[in-house]
Amino acid sequence: MTTRTTTTTATPDTTDTETAARAVATATAGNETGTEASAAPGEETGTTVAATPGTGTGAGAGAGTAAVEAEPADAAAGGGAAPGERREHRERRFRRAPRARRRGLAPGKRLPASRLIGPALFLALWAVASAAGQLDPGAIPAPWTVLRTTGHLWTDGTLPTDVLTSLERAGYGFAFGLTAGVLLALASGLSRVGEALIDGTVQLNRAIPTLGLIPLFILWLGIGETFKIAIIAIVVYIPIYLNLHSALSGIDHRFVELAEVQGLSRLRFVREIVIPGALPGFFVGLRLGVTGSWLSLVVLEQINATSGLGYMMFQAQNYGRTDIILVGLLIYGIFGLVSDSAVRLVERKVLSWRRTLSN
Predict the structure, then answer these.
(1) Contact indicator for 277, 244 with CB cutoff of 8 Å
(2) Residue of 101 and 266 predicted with greater confidence
(3) Measured in whole angstroms, how far is the alpha carbon of residue 118 from the centre of its chain?
(4) How far apart, in Å, are the Cα atoms of 35 and each of 40, 42, 70, 75, 293?
(5) Quick one: three-class SS letters along 204-259?
């Protein structure tokens, strides 16, 4: 790169206008050679400027003043501010006004062991009322009396036998009822012919009191264990059928059209669309069926039975042992609560993809 050097000599009688013109020419020449211009052009470009004492008030002074005034603006535009100032500027830029917190409409976070709070409160009130003498011990014994009786029955070996017998009857009846309810609901919910043949019969059966069928079933099946299991199965299958059939009927028809467009087979249609869509209703019916099995068992075990919780309570009634009756009722309640909690746990695991108020 070649640097052009210009020497300018001014006579004392040269006017301010001519001096300013030569200074502008010198600055232009310096810019053409790639040299930065400053307030003293002669130092940067090697140009010697000789001016009269009056030339300091000319255009050169004005240009220097303009450059000094423009420097802070250029520094701010080019990020020439200090780091602390830039950080504060960014914080002010991205800082937002605090937003008012809205009240949530959801129930909130689930309480730990929430299902045990109600029973625990009931037991506490029972204990306080018994200790205060507000309850007749002959009609409603105190909780510690019931616990003492439970220990005696378990030590004698009668309570374990009765519990296992009741669990066996309820298990068989529930298994048969679950199978019948699911098969009938699938046949009725997925076929118009099946609905015409099955749904009306089930609705008729639902309208008949199930416990009113006991005398008829005794005549048909005898007075042994078979009729007890059959009655439990009827009590179980009705809620399972109703809820599962309702869930199948409530599947959006657009999913059916989508399956037809995709060319799904009948088996894939049932596996990928029907089952996921019907599972919520199925679990509701399952919970009702589990509870129904225990409700019917307490009545059936008082008819020609030699063991079971119902038989134990019936014998205690004959001897006026209210503490033994309360033992049987508490065990039934514990079985119902545990079985319902188990079904809800399975439901929460299987339907974890759903976002509902409960989860």
Answers:
(1) no
(2) 266
(3) 24
(4) 12, 11, 20, 21, 100
(5) HHHHCCHHHHHHHHHHHHCCCHHHHHHHHHHHHHHHHHHHHHHHHHCCCHHHHHHH
The answer to whether the beta carbons of residues 189 and 195 sit under 8 Å apart is yes
* Identity of residue 245: H
Please give the Cα distance from 169 to 140 (Å, whole number): 29
Residue 346: how many other CB atoms lie within 10 Å: 12
Higher pLDDT, 314 or 52: 314
Q: Is the pLDDT of residue 79 over 60?
A: no
**Based on the number of CB atoms within 10 Å of its own CB, is 314 exposed (0-12), middle (13-18) or buried (19 or more)?**
middle
Give the model confidence (pLDDT) of 253-309 as tens digits.
888 888 888 888 888 888 888 888 899 999 999 999 999 999 888 888 888 888 889
d(CA 308, CA 56): 120
Closest CA to 126 of 139, 115, 114, 113: 139
pLDDT in tens, 160-183: 999 999 999 999 999 999 999 999
Query: Which secondary-structure segment (H or E) carries 8?
Result: strand 7-8
Looking at the DSSP assignment, which residues form a beta bridge with residue 7? 48
- Residue 9: pLDDT band with limits 50, 70, 90: very low
- Please name the residue that has the structure tokens 């997925």: 190
CA neighbor of 293 nearest in space, from 209, 232, 206, 223:
232
Find residue 48's DSSP bridge partners: 7
Give the span between the Cα atoms of 292 and 301, in whole angstroms: 14
For the record, the structure tokens of 45 come out as 């470009």
10 Å Cβ neighbour count for 123? Answer: 12
> How far apart, in Å, do the first and last CA atoms of the chain sit?
77
CB 160 within 8 A of CB 151: no
